[in-house]
Specification:
By secondary structure, the protein is α/β, with parallel strands linked by helices. It has helices at residues 15-28, 69-82, 125-129, 136-147, 162-175, 191-195, 210-213, 228-236; strands at residues 2-8, 33-39, 56-60, 87-91, 114-124, 151-155, 180-183, 216-221, 242-249, 258-263, 266-271, 279-284. Bound molecules: guanosine-5'-triphosphate. This is GTP-binding protein.
């Protein structure tokens, strides 16, 4: 049987960071991981992070829960048919309801093949503490992702003071009293802890599908290199309803692009060493009203 872990958590909380770490840890243990992921927006930014030699299937521009479980079932079936692996790591989009995403895994097709181990939710603890600023629908999804976790990573602890850290843990625990909660920075969690997870008995699920969330994606391509200062000024003035931006950007004066990440006001630029399209995907609400840089 293949062990299956489902990684959930709001946009930009640290799921891909966790995924990359767990891939490494499983490999070090001599186990072969495979990945099934999906992304909002038709850019396969996260899957490029997975690395060579790891069997991978993805659904772009949709979400595992809403694209219908048949599509996900077909992808998982292809993975199982094409490759040998011991562990399947599923990364849902930040807009997915974790329990709805379970449908595909519990298909009778896989009853003899997949052993579901649990939902691991990565929470951006800073955003969690400031969740009143989110729109009610997004806030309810954020809470649902926490409520249904079997293991909870209270991530981005480095961005909080000690009293805020305690407050975040206390409040997260009130929402989900049964899951184990671990404080993390860059989703650093020992593999042993992940392996000790066991799935809870699930009650009725509150529906929070992406269609009701009003979340939109927008791909923006640039013909010319970007002026970093002007671009960061644009970022500073973005409304709170732009939850996530990621992609690759060529900066003026550089011949290779940088991978670019924006989550909750935090910006990350990392140099890349190959030519990549100068484009980003934005995820948020009311994007049509947004002025582009
Ligand atoms: N300061 C800080 N940044 C973090 C931490 N964990 C992740 N990040 C950064 O947060 C950004 C988003 O991380 P990802 O792992 O891509 O988040 P994600 O949940 O996969 O994002 P989506 O797939 O878009 O939902 C990246 O720039 C990470 O480097 C953390 O503990 N502290």
């Amino acid at each position: 049987m293949v062990d299956v872990y489902l990684f959930s958590g709001f946009l930009g909380s640290g799921k891909t960071t966790l995924l990359k770490k767990m891939i490494m840890e499983f490999k070090e243990k001599g186990l072969k991981p495979a990945v099934f992921m999906n992304e909002l927006g038709s850019m396969n930014f996260d899957s490029e992070e997975v690395g060579d030699g790891v069997p991978l299937k993805e659904i772009l521009d949709g979400c595992i829960c809403c694209s219908g479980s048949e599509k996900s079932e077909a992808q998982i079936q292809t993975l199982l048919a094409e490759s040998e692996f011991d562990v399947l790591l599923i990364e849902t989009t930040g807009a997915a309801h974790p329990v709805e995403a379970l449908d595909a895994i519990f298909s009778p097709l896989f009853a003899e093949r997949l052993n579901f181990r649990g939902i691991v939710t990565v929470a951006d603890s800073k955003r969690f503490l400031e969740r009143q600023q989110l729109s009610p629908q997004i806030r309810s999804l954020f809470i649902e992702q926490i409520r249904h976790a079997d293991l909870l990573l209270a991530n981005k602890m480095d961005l909080l003071s000690e009293p805020e850290q305690s407050q975040a843990i206390f409040e997260i625990q009130q929402i989900n009293p049964t899951a184990r909660i671990v404080q993390t920075v860059h989703a650093k969690v020992p593999l042993k802890l992940l392996e000790s997870v066991s799935p809870a008995q699930r009650g009725p699920v509150e529906q929070a599908p992406v269609s009701k969330l009003n979340l939109q994606t927008k791909i923006v391509s640039f013909d010319e290199p970007i002026e970093r200062e002007a671009f960061e000024e644009w970022l500073r003035n973005l409304p709170d309803t732009v939850y996530r931006i990621k992609g690759y950007l060529t900066l003026s004066g550089h011949s290779y692009p940088h991978s670019f990440q924006y989550a909750y006001g935090m910006v990350q630029w990392l140099p890349e060493y190959m030519k990549l399209r100068n484009q980003i995907v934005l995820i948020g609400e009311n994007l049509e009203e947004l002025a582009m840089p």
